[in-house]
Amino acid sequence: MNYEFLGALPNQNIILTKKSLIEEANCVLIFAFYKGKLVLVKHHCRGWELPGGNREEGESVTQTVIREMYEETGGELDSIERIGQYLIYEQARLVFVKNIYISKVSVLRELPSGFETNGVMLLDTIPKQMEFMNDPTFSPLMKDNVFLIVSDWIKDHHFTQK
């Protein structure tokens, strides 16, 4: 089943699915859990959001997940599982292909300096989207339907357990 909806930013349209519609993703989004707690990062401009980012040249998508997790949280991953993909179109042009992962964090080290995040927050439960929709401390990227739908997909996943 594919979901289609407007993105969090102007002129964006999103297609979300559990399948891979396009083989080569250029970005990742990570629902990471440390001791059963959801890991959020504080982006220096956007606010609290899920870890993730762009794939670098010559890097596999799995390497991107591992690198982004370390750079944004200081976290080392024990397990990684792809759970979906979404395509972001801006003015009818495909700009991002993001694979969505759920992961289990084995170790959270001190946050590395020099990257785009400046904080880590651990949440005991996956928040309902309405809890942060009007909260300006949360990134606009958390306020589209991707978080809402994927949160439902993963609510009973074993990585979310302590």
UniProtKB/TrEMBL annotation:
Which cofactors does the annotated protein need, by name? Mg(2+)
What does the UniProt keyword field contain?
A: Hydrolase
List, for all copies, the residue spans of the domain called Nudix hydrolase: 21-155
From which domain of life does this come? Bacteria
UniProt cross-references to Pfam families, sorted A to Z? NUDIX
The UniProt entry, under SUPFAM superfamilies, shows: Nudix
Coiled coil located at which positions? none
The question of whether Repeat is a record keyword is answered with no
**Family per record:** Belongs to the Nudix hydrolase family.
Protein's UniProt name: NUDIX domain-containing protein
Which species does this protein come from? Paenibacillus baimaensis
The top of its lineage is: Bacteria, Bacillati, Bacillota, Bacilli, Bacillales
